[in-house]
Specification:
The longest helix has 20 residues. A hairpin with an 8-residue loop joins strand 1 and strand 2. The radius of gyration is 19 Å and the shape is globular. Helices cover 37% and strands 26% of the residues. The protein contains 10 helices and 11 strands. Bound molecules: L-homoserine (HSE). L-homoserine binds next to helix 5. The site of L-homoserine has 14 residues, from helix 5.
Amino acid sequence: MVNKIKVFAPATVANVACGFDIFGFALDFPGDIVTATLTSKPGVTISSISGDGSTLSHDPQKNTAGVGVIKLLASLQSSQGIDLALQKKMPLGSGLGSSAASAAASLFAANTLLGSPLKLHELVPFAMEAEKAACGAAHADNVAPSLLGGFVLIRSYNPLDLIQIPINTPLFCCVLHPKIEIHTETARGILKKEVSLAQLVEQSGNAAGLITGLILGDPRLISRSLQDVVVEPVRASLIPGFHTIKSAALSAGALGCSISGSGPSIFALASDKRDLEVIGNAMQKACHAEGIENELFLSSINMQGPKIL
Ligand code: HSE
């Protein structure tokens, strides 16, 4: 029986402009790595964390990597002991689903060590519990794509209804991470609790358009649909230079550009891999002009989800 496993789980772009809390896709790069080991003492421990600048708690109840596995073991009524060693390979509080990637990697690793009693989609609720512990909201638009890969629609939260949307056109992503930190809880707290009927019509039209564009493989429809009239206008105020950076991405040929998750990262999509660098450079230049340090990630869409290393 295998008693140790090392797993990578991908970063994710949530919301994808028009799908607040209901759309997300996974990236090939970056992501987090968790090494899980079966232990003789019941319960979950976190023996080491690297790459977090000593900011994350080693208390498994207070770390998304630990919370999900604690809930999983409880649900399985298992008294198995599991130790987690966490390698953060992506920026924290960046809007790239850092807490979700840790939760997804540790859950995938633990489930595998336990003999895979649950299917991948059955792990999502446990990862959502971890998200709730991290930011107060059990949103699934980071954890579901991190666990399942690809582009995921959360059609409903209650009951949870996850749908993997086929992407029938080449799609590449460029993510600019301005080096400021935004807490998801704060970014959710500033949102208006109500939308107008006109906003509902526009946002649902774009959400339906984006899904249709992905299925039909129609980059122009995808491009027209990547608009957010509800959340982006409010959260843009948290990201210095957001509008300039977005304009730079669009002028450089991006299909669309918006805030990644709760920010501050900004994503842009392209249908040609060769365009990514040009778009990324334009975004970086605009961000530097604001005097903000940043880093760039260029990636394909990750169709696999977690993988054993
Ligand atoms: N849908 C969530 C939000 C994603 O925008 O608050 C957080 O990464």
